[in-house]
Predict the structure.
Amino acid sequence: MAMSTIGTALWSFALVVGLLTLTPGLDTALILRTSAVGRRRRAWGVVLGIQTGTLLWGALTSLGVTALLTASHLAYTALRWAGAVYLVWMGVRMLRDTFAPGGQGRSGAEAAESALLSGADTVGGGWRQGTLTNLLNPKMGAFYVAVLPQFIPAGVSHFTMGLLLTTVHILLGLVWSAVLIGFARVLRDWLRKPRARRLLDRITGTVIAGFGIRLALGD
């Protein structure tokens, strides 16, 4: 009976976070852009960083720590503003680079090297970026506090079940990220053109800055 209840909870949670994973957002923009400019290792680093953040949010929620964050208006506001500033800074830097003097004459490789989110093609660099982006988003913590406990059956270890549910979210995220990275590789030839890369940077920069502004406004 307990195993059946746990299985039902896992499938139900998978449906909820699966729909959330498929919804285009900041994570999608970061992964697509990083992979599309040819930074495959960095893109996977971003993916692993995002999932590291998800694991930490899930573990902290299971321990009840993030409930303190959502209960403290000051702590939540401070984290929200830190995340907003970070995202707006990233987005503005990307947009600024595409309009920099001489940008029209640079080669695609040079443009990619100068763009903020390109960076060195290393897993470590992408991991740091993905982790920081995820952890500075207090809405992730709020989501887990509000949703995760609803899928933990009575009589089951809160921490163990919480990590199990979080693992489901991470696995779905990894699968979807692999799809995104594969799709981005298809676009790579087109993105060798400087104009195409500038367009992608402007779209991604606008999305990232927009998320930062929404976070600052509390929407």
About this structure: The chain has ten helices and no strands.
